[in-house]
Amino acid sequence: MTYLAKPRLHHPSLERNAVGYTRRDYEGKVSTLCAGCGHDSVSAAIVQAAWELAIEPHRVAKLSGIGCSSKTPDYFLGASHGFNTVHGRMPSVLTGACLANRELLYLGLSGDGDSASIGLGQFAHAMRRGVRMVYIVENNGVYGLTKGQFSATADRGSTSKKGVPNPDAPVDLVAMAMQLGATYVARSFSGDKAQMVPLIKGAIAHGGAAFIDIISPCVTFNNHAGSTRSYDYVREHNEAVSRIDFFDPAPAVQAEPAPGEAIDLPQPGGGTMRLRRLHADHDPTDRVGAMNHLMALHEQGEIATGLLFVDPAARDLHHALRTPALPLNRLDEAVLCPGAAALARLNAALR
Ligand SMILES: Cc1ncc(C[n+]2csc(CCOP(=O)(O)OP(=O)(O)O)c2C)c(N)n1
Ligand code: SF4
Ligand SMILES: [Mg+2]
Asked: pLDDT by residue (tens digit) across 229-288?
């Protein structure tokens, strides 16, 4: 048996959201990951974010590659569409689905091996093209599913479970996403649900290429002294650059922020993000400044978490390609076959 189904019965008094669903309606199957795996906390944060935003589960498409991280879409949003693709190929399948039907919310779930090793090219092109998606990497620095080899995000000098140091320089997916043109870039830690949930909500509302790298420790193969992806290491070196709150389009109550402490950023996909800067020199709308800040913290051995960059006026691939608002399978014959006169006009324009 590869999964366990959860009981369908709900207690009648469970709290319901604006579309009438309880949190249980956003859950998936019982996880088969190792007890304590960071990936399960990410799944719980996705459930919470989708429930709070009152997203109808049938409006979501979850896509993933291969790995323990890529198994997680089975453990949340059980009533949503899902496609477990090939190792490293999730971004191109997601791009195709997204272009065919812009009415769904696309959640791409991946691992550091899936996105920074075999899938690095796919990751890069999805970011630079501005695919409208929420792309989450559950980053543990190893290939968990194949028993703990270093992945491309492992820090140079960090050691494997058997004490062997990694000789290679790490790929920083956050820095790459910013450089390549992603318009919402964040990093979080699976041990910090209070930070993860609003970051995921902000990414969902963003309406462009949103990327979140979540440090998600592998308790079985990469949680020892010498690892820079262990729970202890990340807790000790986590430097939050910002805290965000996310408000849906009709917030009931909004507390007034103290002057200079917060900025409100309306999102192209709806809603408003209120961002509290924890570091006075971190301006999340300044891509170059955000990259400098990220690098400076990295040089000090710190891991910058929070919303690192956001472009509030983001444009996505639908805008660039002028795709139709209707899903392709709902375009009727009049649109698809405009007739001989239109074809003649087109041919004449090309002569
Ligand atoms: C084409 C191909 N190459 C290699 C593999 C073997 N493989 C399966 S999962 C994986 C790495 C997964 O690592 P990551 O994406 O970091 O996920 P994690 O298990 O750490 O969450 C590899 C190399 C495969 N399934 N397919
Ligand atoms: S092997 Fe690691 S990544 Fe995979 S489920 Fe276990 S703890 Fe999680
Ligand atoms: Mg991994």
From this structure: 999 999 999 988 877 776 665 444 344 444 445 667 676 666 676 766 667 677 888 999
Cβ of 174 less than 6 Å from ligand 1: no
Q: How far is the CA of 177 from the centre of ligand 1 (A)?
A: 21
Q: Each residue of 86-99: pLDDT tens digit?
A: 999 999 999 999 99
More confident site: 197 or 335: 197
> How much distance in Å is there from the Cα of 150 to the middle of ligand 1?
11
Looking at the whole model, is its pTM more than 0.90? yes
What is the C-alpha R_g of the chain?
21
pLDDT digits (tens, 9 = 90+) for 307-318: 999 998 899 999
Which chain residues have CB less than 5 Å from ligand 3, an ion?
A: 111-113, 140
Supply the residue whose CA is at minimum distance from atom 2 of ligand 2. Answer: 218
**Residue 217 Cβ contacting ligand 2 at under 6 Å:** no
Cα–Cα distance for residue pair 341/351, rounded to 1 Å:
16
What atom in ligand 2 is closest to the CA of residue 111?
Answer: 3
